[in-house]
Amino acid sequence: MKLLLLLLTLVYYSANAVPIEEYDFNGTNWVVLASGGGMSLEYSIEADVYHAYQVVRSRGIPDKNIIVMNLDEVAYSKRNPTPGIVVSKPGGPDVYHGVPKDYVHEEVTPLNFLAILRGDPVLARNGKKVVKSGPNDHIFVYFMDHGATDLICFPKGRLYGEELNNQLIEMYNQKKFAKLVFYIEACESGSMFAKLLPKDINVYAVTSSAPTESSYACCYDTLRQEFLAGYFNYHWMLNSEQNDLTKVTLEQQFVYIRDHTVNKDPAINATNGQHAQQYGDLSIGKLPVSLFLGKENPKNITEKRFNINPKTEDLINTRDADIYLLQKRIEENDDLSEKQKYVEKLRQLLNNRKLVDKHFEQYVHSIQHLLGIQSFNDINNVLNTRQELNNRQCYRQMVDTFDDKCLNINKNYYVLQKLNVFVNICEKLNETNDMNTAVNALIMYCNNNYMSSLVENVV
After folding, report:
1. Of the residues 146, 235, 260, 359, which is catalytic?
2. Is a pLDDT exceeding 60 seen at residue 90?
3. How far is 329 from 83, CA to CA, in rounded Å?
4. Which among 7, 190, 252, 360 is least surrounded, fewest beta carbons within 10 Å?
5. What is the pLDDT of residues 170-205, one digit of tens each?
6. Which of 153, 187, 219, 394 is labelled catalytic?
7. Strand-pair partners of 317
8. Domain 29-317 adopts which CATH fold?
9. Rounded to the nearest 5 degrees, what angle is found at the Cα of 72, between the Cα atoms of 412 and 323?
10. Where are the alpha helices (DSSP H) in 367-454?
11. 146 tagged catalytic
12. Edge-to-edge strands of the sheet including 151-153?
């Protein structure tokens, strides 16, 4: 009987184990590490990119094959109590040292990001680093920032899901890579690939959250009064640092991330917790992580596994992080004038959010005849439910118009969680004429209602 149980156990684990696929890789590794920035949480956004650089560099990827894009504003910010030193986990080492400044400040744009990926010759002629990959090469891309339905943010502008996926398809058709792996941490990051990323172009994507979910920040640091990391990033980098990556598959890393980033707080999990997702060619998941992050094992690799999960009380929906940071700064400041300054900022932030809610509600009321809705429940559904996005042209036009005529989205990231209203509107508009009428009504509404003062700024 014992022998039978042993055999059954071995069969079970053999069937459910993730085999490391044999794969003869003789190409070059390319790594692109990027963050948008320009809103709040810049510390964790930049710190995570710096940390990712240290990970791939320690694994043997040379600087000439690593391209880093970030604002580079945190290290020497007046709010950083350790000038020139940036950490990405409590008690962690400096991750800022040695990071190349390939694209910084005004160079951090969605156009440059796409140009880097495709190896744009104009940028290359101007002395800028780009991915000069060929058909045998592997590319690993990591992006961290704020996001919303079908978009990720940059300081100026945003990148839509169709733009990104069309770029990946074009790169595949031009034989720019053998395999490409893409990690994204951003709210609703799953929407960048769901129903968009083909399964047959040798691209494997992992996102921090599902298409309608927020992502979470973690590791609040009292000294810096900032979050040090994104929850998703914390775990994929921890897993990468503590293992021989020649023996860990991408799928195993995904499972580790997924299982460790499902929020442990039942109050969070009950409604809108964070759940990592994978998209594209899932067969790539059978390959070892080392084929994308480098195969060298740093001298200080830890054989002892210590799966440190950040404190639940420090897990914050990134869209509420500003509120939390202001509350902590009020609590932790002994200077009464400083305390009062943050009290006033919190009051203004909460009032601004109420005004944003009011403006969206009034706009929906103004076009309810176009939507064919009459009752309070119908209006409430447009304002608060999350329909699946199919009418992408309409949605993009609504978002671009709002950003141009109403309120700069990059200056108020609370607006990002309101963009589902435009999704709901567009799914109800079937005729182009109605879409144009709704867009014109949005322009008229914003011309008559001053909104540009509703800027969120914690610092």
Report:
1. 146
2. yes
3. 20
4. 7
5. 999 999 999 999 999 999 999 999 999 999 999 999
6. 187
7. 216
8. Rossmann fold (3.40.50)
9. 35
10. 368-371, 376-384, 392-405, 420-428, 432-448
11. yes
12. 147-148, 151-153, 158-160
> What span, in angstroms and rounded, lies between the C-alpha atoms of 246 and 249?
8
- Residue 141 contacts residue 117 (beta carbons within 8 Å): yes
The residue among 295, 349, 292 whose CA lies nearest residue 320 is: 349
Tokens in use for 68? 């880093």
- Between helices 110-118 and 161-173, what is the axis angle to 10°? 20
- Total residues belonging to the chain: 459
Could you tell me where in the chain the CATH 1.10.132.130 domains are found? 333-448
Domain made up of 333-448: CATH architecture: Orthogonal Bundle (1.10)
Q: Give yes or no: 187 in active site.
A: yes
- Residue 64 above 70 pLDDT? yes
The rounded distance, in Å, linking the Cα atoms of 309 and 332 is 24
User: How many CB atoms within 10 Å of residue 172?
Assistant: 16
DSSP result, 397-409: HHHHHHHHHT--G
In the chain, list all ranges with CATH 3.40.50.1460. 29-317
Tokens of residue 96, six digits: 């800022």
- Per-residue confidence band for 455, with pLDDT thresholds at 50, 70 and 90: low
User: Rounded to an integer, what distance in angstroms lies between the CA atom of residue 93 and that of residue 192?
Assistant: 32
Q: CA distances (Å), 272 to each of 27, 47, 450, in order?
A: 41, 26, 32
CA gap 281, 240 in Å, rounded: 21
C-beta separation of 34 from 49 below 8 A: yes
- Tokens found for residue 92: 């962690």
Q: Which helix (H) or strand (E) holds 344?
A: helix 336-366
Closest CA to 254 of 323, 194, 205: 205
